[in-house]
UniProtKB/TrEMBL annotation:
Gene Ontology molecular function terms on file: ATP binding; protein kinase activity
InterPro entries (UniProt xref): ABC1_dom (IPR004147), Kinase-like_dom_sf (IPR011009), UbiB (IPR010232), UbiB_bact (IPR045308), UbiB_kinase (IPR050154)
GO CC entries: plasma membrane
Pfam families: ABC1 (PF03109)
Gene name of this polypeptide: ubiB
Binding site for ATP: L127, A128, S129, A130, S131, I132, A133, Q134, V135, K153
Protein's name in the database: Probable protein kinase UbiB
Active site, renumbered: D288
Taxonomic source organism: Pseudidiomarina planktonica
Keywords: ATP-binding, Cell inner membrane, Cell membrane, Kinase, Membrane, Nucleotide-binding, Transferase, Transmembrane, Transmembrane helix, Ubiquinone biosynthesis
Function: Is probably a protein kinase regulator of UbiI activity which is involved in aerobic coenzyme Q (ubiquinone) biosynthesis.
Domain ABC1 atypical kinase-like residue range list: 90-344
Organism taxonomic ancestry: Bacteria, Pseudomonadati, Pseudomonadota, Gammaproteobacteria, Alteromonadales
Top-level taxonomic group: Bacteria
PANTHER family: CHAPERONE-ACTIVITY OF BC1 COMPLEX CABC1 -RELATED (PTHR10566), PROTEIN ACTIVITY OF BC1 COMPLEX KINASE 7, CHLOROPLASTIC (PTHR10566:SF113)
Length: 550
């Protein structure tokens, strides 16, 4: 089965001329010979550009490879711009599997005899079908007897076997590329496939996605910026998820949004605010915000609200990464390239031995021409990509959390400019970042920290006298132990010095006894000297430090 799949993949790559994308001198002799042996598998799409051939090849190989291409499209630091744009066009729409099979999976996952035990209605015809799962509509009666429209997401049957087989082949191919491509170290094909494996396997676990949705909903509870549908946890499992059905306008349907009178400028600006709120306030952000996962509520066009779905991929940032990113963004706004370079070193993103002056000069070379343009004409996402490309020249390692952030920012900016072409992302983001930084380092942060820790301090306050007494008591006991140890050490040093002197005298007397014995006929002076040697040696032995007291 694996050999058959490998042949199919090889045939697809060669039929689309993907071997032409790698110079022959980069390939080992065995691969070049193998290519000549497969002479009947020629390039059937010579008229198409390389990016289009790669996109079509991935589409023909199936859903696992399609999603891999989608992920690669966000890695513009690794791919030429034309190839990245082609991969961004990959569509994740595949043929649905039978609805009765989906129903059986749901019944088995929920432990039901029939699906009617859980749902008042269930439509076997899929609403949508993608590479990992498909979605059905239904009706759920809640505990109050109120009927709720729902969607039921079901993982494709046997998809794990297909994924494992294709991932295994991808890893083998990545090892070959890493070993033989001259640029293999920078491109890191094995790390890219490893990152893709984690992302894909996370998407297979709908229990994880349900937890992500619940967390995001809690973060934006009552917010006018973003609405997250309700997840019905009692009906969700690893391969089944039930959540509220939403009725919104797809974010990509700009004509319908305008026809409904939606405030497009406010909508675009709120998209930026949603992103920065998730990243800097919550440190937990939706990392798959492509147009298919974002809708707009039609209820209040003058005060538009986003609706998010599909929470299989989320990103998180720790406190240090968050602060360094905010300071990086602000340093960009102020064109302080020295600060940007120093922040990359301080954060550990580039090695400590990096020459700050050279790094600053490289960043200025990338960014200064950009600032000659009007702010509205500058792509903030591409500035970030160019920065990462520059940093990679200075041995910056791939930071997974920053890759997800970069991908999400590119999505957000692309959507914003589609909705409102005059969107100035820098002008929109800067006040938010400055306000957040002031809250992190100013008196507001001090008050917030006091407020956050006050209950804990109040709980521990009655214990303070006892803790203080115990600390002072232990400190006094420790000081006494230190004095005793110092005294013992001094005594041992004195004994060691005395022992050394007796040992030296014994050695000198032994030499004297030897000379007397050799050069004088009477033997008794030598005998006396030998006796003194033994006496001095005994004193040296008695004076030595007692090792048992150390």
């Amino acid at each position: 089965m694996r050999i058959q799949r490998l042949y199919q993949i090889t045939k697809t790559f060669l039929n689309y001329g993907l071997d032409d994308l790698v110079p022959a001198r980069w390939l080992p002799w065995s691969v070049r010979i193998g290519r000549h042996l497969l002479f009947w598998l020629g390039n059937k799409h010579k008229e198409k550009p390389p990016g289009a051939r790669l996109r079509l090849a991935l589409e023909s190989l199936g859903p696992v490879w399609v999603k891999f291409g989608q992920m690669l499209s966000t890695r513009r630091d690794l791919l030429p711009p034309d190839v990245a744009l082609e991969l961004a066009m990959l569509q994740d729409k595949v043929k649905p599997f039978p609805g009765d099979q989906a129903q059986k999976i749901i019944e088995q996952a929920l432990g039901l005899l029939t699906i009617k035990e859980a749902f008042a209605d269930f439509d076997q015809t899929p609403l949508a079908s993608a590479s990992i799962a498909q979605v059905h509509t239904g009706v759920l009666t809640d505990v109050k007897g109120i009927e709720r429209e729902i969607i039921v997401k079901v993982i494709r049957p046997d998809i794990r076997k297909t994924i494992d087989a294709d991932l295994s082949l991808m890893e083998t191919l990545a090892q070959v590329l890493a070993r033989h491509l001259p640029d293999g170290r920078r491109l890191k094909p094995r790390e890219v496939v490893k990152e893709y494996r984690k992302t894909l396997l996370d998407e297979l676990n709908l229990a994880r996605e349900a937890a992500n949705a619940i967390q995001l909903r809690r973060n934006f509870e009552g917010s006018k910026l973003l609405y997250i549908p309700v997840v019905y946890s009692d009906y969700s499992r690893e391969n089944v998820m039930v959540m509220e059905r939403i009725h919104g306008i797809p974010i990509s349907d700009v004509d319908t949004l305008r026809a409904n009178g939606v405030d497009m400028k406010l909508l675009a600006e709120r998209g930026v605010e949603v992103f920065f709120t998730q990243v800097f306030r919550d440190s937990f952000f939706h990392a798959d915000m492509h147009p298919g996962n974002i809708f707009v509520s039609p209820d209040n066009p003058d005060d538009p609200q986003y609706i998010g779905i599909d929470f299989g991929i989320v990103g998180t940032l720790n406190r240090d990464d968050k602060r360094y990113l905010a300071e990086n963004f602000l340093a960009f706004f102020n064109r302080d390239y020295r600060k940007v370079a120093e922040l990359h070193v301080d954060s550990g993103w580039v090695p400590a031995h990096t020459n700050i002056e050279d790094f600053e000069s490289a960043i200025r070379t990338v960014c200064e021409p950009i600032f000659q343009k009007p702010l509205a004409d500058i792509s903030f996402g591409h500035v970030l990509v160019n920065l990462f490309n520059t940093a990679r020249r200075f041995e910056m390692e791939v930071q997974p959390q920053l890759v997800l952030l970069q991908k999400t920012l590119l999505y957000v900016e692309g959507l914003g400019r589609q909705l409102y072409p005059q969107l100035d992302l820098w002008k929109t983001a800067k006040p938010y970042l400055e306000s957040w930084m002031h809250e992190q380092i100013g008196w507001r942060k001090v008050l917030s920290s006091v407020k956050e820790h006050a209950p804990y301090w109040a709980e521990k306050l009655p214990e303070v006298p006892t803790l203080l007494y115990d600390t002072l008591h232990h400190q006094r006991s420790f000081q006494q132990q230190q004095v005793s140890l110092i005294k013992q050490l001094t005594e041992q040093q004195e004994r060691a010095a005395t022992s050394r002197w007796w040992t030296l005298l014994a050695g000198a007397m032994l030499v004297s006894a030897t000379l007397l014995f050799v050069h004088l006929k009477p033997w008794w002076p030598a005998a006396i000297a030998l006796g003194l040697t033994a006496g001095f040696a005994w004193q040296g032995f008695r004076s030595r430090p007692d090792s048992s007291k150390k």
